[in-house]
Design goal:
CATH superfamily of the largest domain: Porin chaperone SurA, peptide-binding domain
Radius of gyration: 29 Å
CATH architecture of the largest domain: Orthogonal Bundle
CATH class of the largest domain: Mainly Alpha
Low-confidence stretches: 1-38
Order of helices and strands: HHHEEHHHHHHEEHHEHEEEHE
CATH topology of the largest domain: Triger factor/SurA peptide-binding fold
Mean pLDDT: 87
Number of strands: 9
Distance between the termini: 32 Å
Largest sheet: 4 strands, antiparallel
Shape: elongated
Structural class: alpha+beta
Length: 339
Amino acid sequence: MKFRLSICALLVTALSSIAAQVASHAPSSIQSKITQAAGQPSGKPVVRVNGVILTDKDLVREEYQIFPYAKQHDGRIPPDLEPDIRKGALQMIIFEELVYQEAQKRKFAIPPQQLRKAEADFRKQFDTPGEYRQFLQSEFQGNEQLLREKITRSLLIERLLKTEVEAKATVSEVELRAYYDKNPARFQYPESFAIQTISIIPPEKATAAQIKEAKKRAEEAYQQAKATKSAEEFGLLAEKISEDDYRVMMGDHKWVARDKMPPEMLQPALKMHDGEMSSLIPVGQNYIVFRMNKHLPAGKAPFEKVKAQLRDELQKSKTNQVRAAFNKKLHQNAKVETL
């Protein structure tokens, strides 16, 4: 499986919210599968944070916040991922509890109207009142006050994280410009070609007769391609007659850097204008005709074009740093005991 998790990244980037804290209880068939797959968490203590007990129920819910793809695995976490996910989930529930305790120390309070709205939003997750009551009974023994306390806890965590992480991780325009100016190579791009192809490919180890037949098909394909008037028409023809893997994408290769273009295609490409079509080109034993959609000379992306994406990138990085520092600070005088 190629999918891997960076637990550290998860710990420092995921901002707690009402969705992360409470919506993990949301009703669905997957929730029951999750419970079964986790071996029916019973409320067994797993960690004590400054005297507050967190249980295997808290841990399992966080595991499935980290790995929402469980629904693709019949409610189970793949065995090769489970140790790292459990470790990350344990660290996360400890962090959230420390944040909550810090919010209490600072005497943060949630305005009644905000709490009412959060409760109403939470109830909207349920398709019917019966579903909500079933959830309330299974998770909170039918006690709405316990649910309200859980929602309040979530809102307090969210508020403190906005103060200590989000507000301090803002990236200014000056910082963006400074990064852009100091890293010019990052924003340079090579000479590239946006092309679509139609390819005719003889069998591997083709006989002379098969090669001759492939050339005939290629010449017929070329005549049809010449009749196309747009990228869409060319693409529809590619879907129909092309024999390479790009046919499923209307022959579209997106952007191909100059050094990735086969020499047989590069030479005509350098002389073509946007919207033109090549002649029939032998490339090895294959035959290719391509449409030049755009020829882009090498250059550097302007600041205004990359600013939004760069802001997201730098803000995530800064958030990681600020959150990690806050996490370290919270742990300095905390007593955390794994049970």
